[in-house]
Amino acid sequence: MNDTENDTDSEAERIETLAVGDEQSGERLDRVLAAGVDGLSRTRLKALILEGRVAIGGRTIRDPGARVNAGDTITVNVPPPEDALPEGEPIPLDVVFEDSDLIVIDKPAGLVVHPAAGHPTGTLVNALIAHCGESLSGIGGVKRPGIVHRLDKDTSGLIVVAKNDKTHQALARQFADHGRTGPLQRQYLAFVWGVPDRPKGTVDAPIDRHPHARERMAVRPNGREAITHWEVLERYQGLDGKPVAALLACRLETGRTHQIRVHMAHIGHPLLGDEIYGPGFKTKSALLAPPARDALEALGRQALHAYMLGFQHPDSHQEMTFRSELPPELARLRRGLSGAATPRKRAKKQ
Fold it and tell me: What percent of the chain has pLDDT over 70?
């Protein structure tokens, strides 16, 4: 099936040409490419599709799930290999605390933590390399120097990064313990649809990859342990006078990918603005007052903010706690929901 046209210059773009056979008719585009293109993972091929580098019969296809037909000719423009070492970029950082061992950043929504498929540059790591020079820990690997924990691209809030290997190892032990026996604290503010029927609770439900959508996580019987503690801080009424949303404080006892988003959806209270785990709740926006509805429409992300981070400094052994107020877009949403003004304050050490 694979008729490959490779440029002899390994640093130049190459073009892969594939002919779809009868037995592959109706299959997903990314699956067909994964079977027919040597040396590229399905994840990498999916990224190439999304970048507009794949065409069927000369027509660009940007949907990895598009179905192919027998006789289709698929072309893939494969760019030259990228340098594995991320470079520093002059991206502004909101530095909350910094010393010779670590740095605490108040990350804005939209900033990816480290380079990955589809995000080779413009990440927090690129910004940190420019800011810190070569002082970041190497334990995380060339693409994740100093990265001890992560926040989703569209989750805002506090993140700590190690500047040397000793600090990285010590912080990693604290994050692995998740505050069960040590000083680590990770708390989030989450705006969710609906109001839980009790003031506080715990979600203890294992999480693993979704069986059919690999970009999603899901509660799965044989998944990894995942525990989220939550407490209702504020309740909001809709135009009909009934409860429509709530502000929760969520504390992580484990650290799984998308944990809060998955757990809140699992108990029937997905996050406002979460297109992946709460798309069925979009119609509820009609129940919001115009200021809240406008703020939600402008948000463009899940309403989740990492507002508290606490840990023991690996060198001084001082217990440090940092808090970050809601960023402007979430403060606007809160005002729209409650009518209460919440001015933005700079994150500070306490």
Answer: 88
194 and 330 belong to one structural domain: yes
CA distance linking residue 246 with residue 130, whole number of Å = 39
Closest CA to 91 of 135, 128, 134, 132: 128
Query: What is the rounded CA–CA span in Å between residue 48 and residue 44?
Result: 6
Where in the sequence is the domain holding 251, given as residue range(s)? 178-350
Q: Do 224 and 320 sit in the same domain of this protein?
A: yes
24/255 Cα distance (integer angstroms): 39
Question: ∠ CA 164-167-172 to the nearest 5 degrees?
Answer: 120
Amino acid at position 348, single letter: K
Euclidean distance between CA atoms 202 and 278, whole angstroms = 20
Q: What is the pLDDT of residues 284-293, one digit of tens each?
A: 999 999 999 9
User: How far lies 310's CA from each of 39, 65, 320, in Å?
Assistant: 43, 42, 5
Last residue in a domain, options 60, 78, 96: 78
Cα(53)–Cα(7) distance, rounded to whole angstroms?
16
Residue 43 burial class via C-beta count within 10 angstroms: exposed 0-12, middle 13-18, buried 19 and up: middle
Give me the active site residues, please: 152
Report pLDDT digits (tens) over 92-130: 999 999 999 999 999 999 999 987 766 778 899 999 988
Give the chain's domain count.
Answer: 3
Residue identified by tokens 């606007």 is 332
pLDDT of 214 reads: 72
Domain shared by 193 and 325, yes or no = yes
CA distance 108 to 97: 16
Determine the Cα–Cα distance for residues 61 and 182; give it in Å rounded to an integer.
50
Same domain, 31 and 108: no
Mark whether 183 and 229 lie in a shared domain.
Answer: yes
Final residue before a domain boundary, out of 155, 176, 197:
176
Domain co-membership, 182 together with 278: yes
Q: Which residue(s) pair with 192 in the sheet?
A: 246, 271
